[in-house]
Amino acid sequence: MTAPHTLNRLENTRENAKKVSEILVRAFADDPVINAFVEPIRDPIARQHFREDTWFQFLILAASLNHCELYEVDDWKGVSVWMPPNTDAGNPWTLIPAEFLRVLWGLGIRGVALSGLGVGGELRRAAREMMDTLNKQSGAKVKGLSGCWYCFFVGVLPEHQNQGLSRALMSPHTPSLSPYTLSPTHSPQHPTSLKASNPRSRALYEKLGFTLLGERRIAVGSMNAKGMTERGGEGAPIWGMAIPALEKDRE
Q: By percentage, how much of the chain surpasses pLDDT 90?
């Protein structure tokens, strides 16, 4: 079977991290979780700073410094970022090299507090709950991210969506998509996890074999399902999903 798209593994360089972040900015322009981060920031300059590639560039550079795998498809029509087991883009030792101070400077103290402490805390709690569920389902012997590949980001430019590019970008650690697999470091016996932040991506991941671990809503009471400010809103949804370890690993 021949892969219909060209998937490339990228080197973990600052230049590639910047190019990946530029794609993600456009792909996540109206994402509910990103909206939920931005909405509380009233300073228009700080809002623009967060919306543009400064924030994503920091995240992807931090991931690169923690040994992520970067991929692009069909000459930069889409990108994906995968975190290996036992790694964390939030590693405090790599925050400064990843230019976190530039993020702080652009957002300002109030912007950091509004965008990071509220929604960010809820996202971290959601991630912990997801991993607890995954450990139970996969039979993991230790807690945390042991043995689990995590899809940090996958994004396709709006004008190239609905062309099967996401399937290619998800393939390095999704065993059912073997024609694209480029990562010799991945064993399909290991669990794979991610978080979906809109119904469309959730449906796609389910088609690729991911099972739903649970749903959590962030900013309940202050934002609607699109992550926009709304008093009494239902909150922006986030779904934890995973492909658990194969049965032979559950001992």
A: 31
